[in-house]
Structures are given as C-alpha cells and as structure tokens.
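Q: Given only this backbone (493 positions), what sequence would you predict?
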C-alpha cells in the first residue's frame, strides 16, 4: 500500500486550495509536501520592497473564504502570507504538512498503481499525485557575461536580503518586469543613484490603489455580501477587459487597443519628457507579455538620481556594468529583476517525472509540444494531475484557476473511489481533442494577432506555442471542469 492516498506537492495557494477540496470530499489520507520550511509559496519567498498583488485583492482570494481585513485595494505581500496562514489554520491543514521536504523526482510504479517520490526526506509513495508546485518559483539569473565577477552584493528580487540596507547606496537593477516595477519606486527614494537596465518596456495601466477605510472593512465583516458584490465587480472588470481582450483579440481588437490607449495616456500624463517617454513605450502589442499596474513606476524615472538605460548590457564588471555604447556605470549593489524560469525544460516540470513506460514528461513535452487535457492531466502519467499544467491559467486571478482545476481533480478522484479504481488515465483521444481546441482558439489571441515579435515574453515556448494561458474565459473553464465527460478517463480497478 502507498504511504498516502494522495500527495500534493507545494504548499502555496494551489496546494492549500486543493487540500481544502480533498478534505471537503472526504479524502483525509493526504500529505502536502513542500521544500520550504513554511507555507505560502510565492508570498513566503518574495519579500522585496513594494511587493503587492496586481489584481484587486477582492478577486485575489478563495471565493469561499473572503478576507475582510485586506488593508488596501491591492494588498501587500505580507497580508497574502497571513491569509495563507489563516486558511491553513481554519481548514485544519497543518497536520498534513511535510515541510522542508524537497521532491527530487517522481516515478510511476505500474505494478503497484502508485507514484514513488524521491525526496530529500526519503521515499514517499502515493496512489494519486497532485502537483501544485507553481511555475514562478525558480529565480532566473540573466545570461550576461561577467555576472559572477561583480564584487558587490547581488540580489534577485525573489531572494531579497532585508538586512542589506540600500539607503545611500549606488544600485544597478536589471529588468523592468512585474517585480522590478514594484521595487523601483520603493527604492528610488532611498538610494544615492539607481541605474535601471531595460531590455523590453512594460505596458503599465494606472493603479487605483488606496487604503480601505476601517468602516468599510467592518461592513465587509458584518455584512459579507457587500464584499461579494465588490468581488463580482472586480471579477467582471478583469475578466471583461483583460481575459476577453487578450483571448478574443481577433474578434474584439478594440478592447486591447483601448487598453493600449489607456496605458499610453497614463504614460503621457506622468512623463512629459518625449525622450524618456519614447524609451518607456512598448514596441509590441498589449497582452503579448505580462502587463502591470502602477501609478508610481513612471514618475520614478523622472528623479535626478534615477537613470533608465536602454543601451543594452555588454558585460558586468567587478564594479558595475559596461553597456553596448561603451559607457561604464559603477555601483555597489546589483539587483536582478529578471523573473523566473517559466517554460524551461527544468521548470515544467521542476523535477523529473517518469510516467507510464518510463516516459519522461519534460522530454515528452519538448518533443511533442506542451499539452495537457484541460490543462491538468496527460495520458503518459496516470494518477497525476497538475494544477498549473499547460493551457490552465485563464489570465485572471490565480484563485480562479485553483478552484476550477480542483473541481476537475476531485471529480476524477471521487469517481475513482466510486468505481474502486486504483489507476486513472486520461485517454489519448481526449487529450488530442483538447490540444487541437487550444491551438485553434490560440489563433484568435493577442499572442498571434498583436505584434508580439519584440515582446521577449515568457508566455511563449521555444516552438512558438503560448501554452501558459488557456484561451477561454474563466467561466468557460469552470463550466468545463464541472461538465467534462468522465469517460475521457479510463478507470482501472
Ligand atoms: C512576485 C509575484 C507576484 C504575483 N502576483 C500575482 C497577482 O497579483 N495576481 C495573480 O493572479 N498572480 C500573481 N502571481 C502568480 C502567482 O504565482 C500565483 O498567484 C500564486 O500565488 C502561485 O501559487 P502556487 O501555489 O500555484 O505556486 P507557489 O506559490 O509558487 O507555490 C508552489 C510551492 O511549491 C513548492 N515546490 C516547488 N518545487 C518543489 C519541489 N521540487 N519539492 C517540494 N516543493 C516544491 C515551492 O516551494 C512553493 O512553496 C505572482 C507571482 C509572483 C512571483
């Protein structure tokens, strides 16, 4: 017998969310394994100055567990960590946690109908395996010559050293993605000088962020329906403009064009200098790359102690950076705002998974393109579901994805129990059908219709596919998870 009926890898919000559903459906023999010493995933690890959500907090939470205590419209990172703790306590998940346990590989045992996990704490076996290990957790160091020669302090935004005070320091920051965008305005005020090295400008919309007044929070607590109404409103706005705009770009190009106009007007209002504005203007269409929101990012570049450098980095020297135009900048701290490994062979999946017949999942995807039935299961790996598989995230709140993927998984597990099945495998035909549908729908997205050539976007795989985002609305994804045909799986006793 396996050690556990179910093992969930990852104690971020995805792992916690599926664990709640497991308990609700009467699955009590499960473990949540995480390499970290604490829960929270992204919100445990990322502690850089300015970290906050970039979709409204009313939407960025479990639908069944609203949080009346968000202090701002866009809550800061430490509140998300507290929310994770609250959820783990309220739903009694702590007894299931096996922290400080890194999964090194997973092998399917055909004879025993179970997964064998090789972990830093020994072998763990499970009848069913659910990967909730996220995608944005392996910091990516840029491939710039001389990086190891830098004599000063180097910090990735996801490995922030809070003891390294930046006050009065000269700092070089590489990257202008979603994390850098939050860090830059926060540190610009403190540092003596900040050089920001930009490869690709980011689309930035205004951020209507403000403190939620105490009486409003009290109202949310006493009359929860009021917060649900706000959530319905923020859901509708994000879904309509962002998800529909990007996924239905060919049909409704005016939505994305409208967003581009909004962002450009925001830039023009905040940056009157034409030269600086030109540098901050993206050369690709909205939606090709992760956009963000900020009302403090652009003004930071108007400060006399901040330089936006677009010349391209030739190499990193022991004292700073030499750019392609031969200019040298000296600083003592180098911040890497260079994001995460995303569609990389050692991140999807982040550890080797050998499925039926020993097929290596990572190699299988590299050879046959990233794909998974309904974004969660593959015929090569029985008894395994991924919460964030290829074509799973609709681009709205991560919680929407967690909830509809959990619905899918629990329907499969409940059916397996009902039929006394110990082996559950999605049929190849169903998987192929879903993949064809995703490819067909992808053709209508902004990724293939809005001039993405210069976007350097992590949404794209090396083969040109854009498998991170599911080109459907969140509602469609939810409906599918409730109604997909269970006969798309083979249940074997
Ligand atoms: C800085 C930042 C800001 C973000 N802001 C937003 C936002 O505003 N809105 C939004 O919708 N999304 C946002 N995201 C996306 C974010 O990834 C999700 O919202 C969500 O928190 C991810 O949860 P998760 O549980 O899927 O993954 P994670 O939070 O990454 O958790 C995965 C867990 O798996 C563990 N793990 C990984 N590999 C192993 C292994 N081999 N063995 C054991 N454990 C392992 C990790 O330690 C981690 O704890 C943001 C991401 C980042 C990085």
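A: Predicted residues:
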């Amino acid at each position: 017998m396996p050690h556990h009926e179910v093992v969930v890898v990852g104690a971020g919000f995805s792992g916690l969310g599926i664990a709640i559903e497991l308990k609700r459906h009467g699955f009590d023999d499960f473990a949540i394994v995480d390499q970290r010493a604490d829960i929270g995933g992204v919100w445990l690890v990322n502690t850089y100055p300015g970290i906050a959500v970039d979709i409204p907090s009313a939407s960025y939470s479990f639908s069944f567990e609203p949080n009346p205590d968000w202090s701002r419209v866009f809550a800061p990172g430490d509140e998300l960590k507290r929310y994770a703790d609250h959820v783990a306590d309220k739903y009694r998940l702590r007894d299931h946690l096996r922290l400080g346990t890194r999964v090194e590989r997973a092998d399917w045992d055909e004879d025993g109908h179970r997964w064998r996990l090789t972990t830093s704490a020994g072998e763990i076996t499970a009848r069913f395996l659910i990967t909730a290990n996220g995608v944005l957790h392996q910091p990516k160091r840029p491939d710039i010559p001389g990086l190891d020669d830098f004599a000063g302090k180097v910090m990735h935004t996801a490995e922030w050293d809070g003891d390294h005070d930046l006050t009065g320091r000269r700092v070089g920051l590489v990257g202008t993605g979603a994390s850098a965008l939050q860090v830059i305005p926060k540190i610009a005020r403190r540092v003596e000088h900040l050089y920001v090295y930009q490869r690709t400008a980011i689309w930035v919309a205004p951020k209507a962020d403000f403190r939620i007044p105490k009486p409003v929070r009290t109202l949310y607590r006493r009359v929860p329906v009021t917060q649900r109404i706000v959530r319905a409103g923020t859901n509708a706005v994000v879904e309509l403009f962002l998800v529909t705009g990007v996924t239905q770009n060919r049909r409704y190009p005016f939505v994305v064009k409208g967003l581009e106009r909004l962002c450009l007007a925001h830039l023009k209002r905040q940056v009157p200098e034409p030269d600086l504005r030109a540098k901050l203007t993206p050369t690709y269409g909205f939606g090709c790359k992760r956009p963000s929101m900020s009302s403090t990012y652009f003004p930071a570049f108007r400060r006399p102690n901040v330089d936006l450098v677009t010349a391209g980095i030739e190499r990193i020297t022991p004292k700073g950076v030499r750019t392609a135009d031969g200019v040298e900048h000296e600083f003592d701290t180098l911040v890497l705002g260079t994001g995460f490994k995303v569609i990389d062979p050692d991140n999807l999946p982040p550890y080797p998974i050998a499925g039926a017949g020993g097929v290596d999942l990572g190699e299988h995807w590299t050879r046959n393109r990233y794909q998974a039935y309904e974004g969660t299961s593959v015929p090569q790996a029985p008894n395994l579901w991924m919460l964030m598989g290829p074509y799973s995230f609709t681009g709205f709140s991560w919680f929407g994805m967690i909830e509809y993927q959990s619905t899918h998984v629990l329907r499969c597990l409940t059916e397996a129990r009902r039929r006394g099945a110990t082996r559950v495998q999605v049929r190849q035909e169903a998987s192929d059908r879903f993949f064809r549908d995703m490819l067909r729908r992808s053709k209508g997205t902004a990724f293939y219709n809005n001039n993405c050539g210069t976007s350097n976007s992590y949404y794209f795989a090396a083969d040109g596919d854009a498998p991170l985002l599911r080109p459907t609305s969140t509602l469609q994804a939810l409906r599918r998870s409730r109604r997909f045909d269970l006969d798309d799986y083979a249940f074997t006793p």
